[in-house]
Amino acid sequence: MDRVIYLDHSATTPVAPEVLEAMAPYHREHYGNASSLHVYGRKARSAMEESRGAIAERLGVRAEEIVFTSGATEANNLALVGAAYSSAERRHLVTTAIEHHAVLHTARWLEKLGYSVTFVSPDSSGRVDPQAIGEAVQDDTFLVSVMAGNNELGTTQPIEEIGGLCRERGVLFHTDAVQAFGKVPLAMDSVDLLSASAHKLHGPKGVGLLFVRSGVRLTPLFHGGGHEGGRRSGTENVPGIVGLAKATKISFSEQDESAPRLRALRERLIEGVTRVPGSRLNGHRENSLPHIANFSFEAIEGESLVLKLDEEGIAVSTGSACSSPDLEPSHVLVAIGVPPAMVHGSLRVSTGRETTSEDIERFLEILPRAVESLRAYSPFRVGESDVH
Ligand SMILES: Cc1ncc(COP(=O)(O)O)c(C=O)c1O
After folding, report:
1. C-alpha 202, offset from chain centre
2. Do 166 and 60 sit in the same domain of this protein?
3. Which residue range is the domain that position 270 belongs to?
4. Does any ligand 1 atom lie closer than 6 A to the CB of residue 71?
């Protein structure tokens, strides 16, 4: 494959060589089951507990507050469903309309089980007003779940304020921090539950964690051997956990340098892309994660643009239809009120450790031509925004 410029880091990231190297011995030589009593088992367990301790230290929390999972989808399910099952008389959940499906569909599942859910809408930049969260909380609310940074827009949320008001009201607070983890500082003191996933920070796929503040009761989803202090049964993915710890260490230690670098690339992207006629930035310009920018183009189908850019050696994604066979536009773009003429023509660009300013310049050179050539075949014209 010729070199492709990879600008889809919020979908996943390449595993860092140091992470692969740290994991390899736990596939090759130290392959024991962490529950075994012999030397293989002890070696695996000590690597796992060291990893837990190292991650907890980075987060400023206690080792026993980290539960390893198969990723953030599981962590989010454990947070929402586990809290619901543990709160006998409280049957109301507060979340937002722009959560990842791992939260949104779990909330919908709880509705089917008879729980009630309030989906708080964000403003047009994707920001959720803490006051609106406060107003949504009821006497029987068992949990508030608000993501730290949106995976499509990049927009960040006022987690400290929301966490503060949850504490005042005696309600548990969960944040899906998948996109924020290792990218920006996390307000750990403000949250009771936090989800993260290794593959978004140059770690392996299929491993993640849920931070569970001491004293928070969660009914486990998986029943079996009582692993992870009884909170998540299943033989632990030791190589994955070692990889998650290494990826966390690297991301957290480089954060102070990488965040301003990625922010500068994002600014350049915004400046360059919004010069394309009939384009707009979706999401908040300042209150954003450093690595995600989302745009819409009039008279363009997002999927066609992704495929066109793919032909040109650029990998990006769209919120227009990617995961839905029925060509529904992204629930996030709909929730922030992207105009109908633009909601189908969205592009998400997400940068990472290996992205250079040359990559961004190359993208900015190719993009206007790609947009132009697709518009030549479009039945719609720029400016005719009532056509969709
Ligand atoms: C915000 C957010 N939450 C949850 C997930 C799911 O994480 P995982 O792939 O580890 O299940 C993702 C991944 O796309 C995400 O971006």
Report:
1. 14
2. yes
3. 5-11+255-377
4. yes
Task: Count CB atoms within 10 A of the CB of residue 340.
Answer: 13
Place of tokens 């992205």: 355
Torsion 67-73-76-78 (CA) sign: negative
Strands annotated E in 129-276? 141-145, 172-176, 193-197, 208-212
Q: What is the pLDDT of residue 79?
A: 98
Total structural domains within the chain: 2
313 and 360 assigned to the same domain? yes
**Is 385 inside a domain boundary?**
no
Mean pLDDT for the stretch of residues 53-71: 98
* 166 labelled catalytic: no
Q: Are residues 237 and 205 in the same domain?
A: yes
For ligand 1, atom 13: residue with the closest CA: 11
What is the widest separation between alpha-carbon atoms in the chain?
Answer: 71
Choosing from 322, 334, 364, 366, the catalytic residue is 322
Q: Are 297 and 156 found together in one domain?
A: no
**324 secondary structure, DSSP code:** -
- Considering the domain architecture, whether residues 191 and 86 belong to the same structural domain is answered as yes
315-368 pLDDT tens trace: 999 975 545 455 678 999 999 999 988 999 999 999 999 999 999 999 999 999
Domain stop point among 233, 251, 269: 251
